């Protein structure tokens, strides 16, 4: 089974990569880009029987820095 | 309006970050993690009227290296 985890910087945490992308898009002539946030996506290929709780534990312990990042888990 | 872009390494392209995560999860006692791929997610806050075609052009020109990466665009 598959699980997909999104890890994003929390609102209010400065995102220099996102800002760099926004600036570059503007310089390339893409108007109307009002904000950009960049995060990570982690796709896990799990043995059958793994639960969302297991994946959340992975997030808490390794995949996300919960001081500055939030995460969401999509199973299946 | 919002758009979300996922950028992943193409199948067959070595993903050292994903391998490092897989190895670390195993060392932490999480059994049954058979594979991990890590990619980027980019959330764009766009002015009204932006189209998926605009976002795909951003991907082709800046957000993804289409030699080794594939991307998907979700609008809304």
Question: What does this 3D model show about the protein?
Answer:
Two copies of one chain form a homodimer. With 76 residues, chain A is α+β, with helices and mostly antiparallel strands. Helices cover 32% and strands 38% of the residues of chain A. Chain A contains two helices and three strands. Chain A has helices at 16-27, 52-63; strands spanning 2-9, 33-46, 69-75. In chain A, strands 2-1-3 form a three-stranded antiparallel sheet. The longest helix of chain A has 12 residues, at 16-27. The A-B interface holds A 6, 8, 18, 21, 24-25, 28, 30-47, 49-50, 54, 57-58, 61-63 and B 6, 8, 18, 21, 24-25, 28, 30-47, 49-50, 54, 57-58, 61-63.
Structural class of chain A: alpha+beta
Mean pLDDT of chain A: 97
Annotation, overall tally of beta strands of chain A:
3
- For the record, the count of structural domains of chain A works out to 1
Give, in order, the helices and strands of chain A: EHEHE
Quaternary class = homodimer
CATH class membership of chain A? Alpha Beta
Compile the SSE list and pairings.
The structure is a homodimer of 76-residue chains.
Chain A (H helix, E strand, L loop, with lengths): L1 E8 L6 H12 L5 E14 L5 H12 L5 E7 L1
Antiparallel strand pairs in A: 1-2, 1-3
